[in-house]
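STRUCTURE:
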């Protein structure tokens, strides 16, 4: 479960292997050619990081400023949509973790969640799809007072320049993906994470992940997340590859209309079936863009 929690920081669940040249260490990519009159941009996000650790690069800010629209995985600015899918976060059939674990396992998970600061009440979390419940552990694992999603910074910048914000898919669809993985398997993964939790080790792994992200080393991100101990590779197609293909089909139409910035989990970018390669196969020119991301209050020398 540890690797699943790490993966969720850079992609919904899965991560695919890839090879990257060191000179291409960047999260920002320019898409041009294939008949486009102006380029668009792809950026890889991390869904949770310490707020004081990072800011948007000048390159990404420029891309947002000169674009017509910004697309995220979800339209996070649509509050009504968020509220309408709250019930979809729960397991179907009034299932709870108590139904999926032994009494001993359930007690251990309950005590663990109850001991974490700033968590939602366990009475609520135990009804969530277990992998969603696990994702709430991310903020608790970050060694900082305030956590933040890269998407929040991107939305702030887009709004500053009066750019519209849209989503590539709906939250209802994204939440439905979790129903593709047996709840029992998710619950056992969650228990395994709790049972093997080591504060020092787990915090070190999260630190390694966020450092790899800040340094834009996708090869290191892959090394930290590719290990699969729980058979999750069986669901890679629906969790990752199918979504990438659907997005690229949609982007093909969007690119033709105007210049846009697309910001999705960094795990969607690399690999043979990653967005960058799929765009190349579709006939586009995909080039790395220097993307200097400095910590807040850190001045470039």
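SEQUENCE:
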């Amino acid at each position: 479960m540890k690797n699943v929690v790490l993966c969720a920081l850079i992609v919904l669940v899965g991560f695919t292997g890839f090879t990257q040249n060191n000179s291409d260490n960047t999260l920002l990519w320019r898409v041009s050619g294939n008949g486009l009159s102006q380029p668009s941009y792809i950026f890889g996000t991390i869904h949770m990081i310490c707020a004081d650790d990072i800011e948007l690069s000048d390159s990404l800010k420029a891309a947002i400023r000169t674009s017509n629209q910004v697309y995220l995985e979800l339209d996070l600015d649509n509050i009504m949509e968020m509220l309408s899918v709250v019930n979809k976060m729960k397991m179907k059939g009034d299932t709870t973790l108590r139904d999926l674990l032994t009494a001993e396992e359930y007690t251990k998970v309950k005590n663990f969640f109850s001991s974490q600061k700033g968590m939602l009440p366990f009475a609520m979390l135990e009804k969530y799809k277990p992998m969603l419940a696990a994702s709430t552990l991310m903020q608790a694992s970050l060694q900082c007072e305030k956590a933040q999603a890269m998407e929040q910074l991107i939305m702030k910048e887009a709004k500053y320049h009066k750019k519209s914000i849209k989503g590539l898919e709906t939250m209802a669809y994204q939440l439905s993906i979790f129903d593709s993985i047996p709840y029992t398997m998710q619950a056992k993964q969650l228990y395994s994470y709790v049972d093997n939790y080591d504060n020092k080790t787990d915090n070190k792994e999260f630190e390694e992940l966020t450092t790899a992200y800040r340094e834009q080393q996708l090869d290191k991100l892959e090394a930290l997340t590719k290990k699969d101990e729980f058979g999750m590779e069986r669901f890679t197609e629906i969790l990752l590859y199918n979504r990438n293909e659907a997005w690229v089909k949609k982007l093909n139409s969007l690119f033709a209309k105007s210049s846009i910035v697309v910001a999705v989990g960094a795990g969607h970018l690399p690999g043979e079936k990653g967005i960058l390669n799929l765009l190349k196969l579709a006939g586009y020119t995909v080039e790395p863009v220097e993307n200097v991301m400095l910590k807040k209050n850190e001045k470039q020398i």
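REMARK: The beta strands are 28-32, 40-45, 49-50, 69-72, 147-148, 164-167, 260-265, 285-289.
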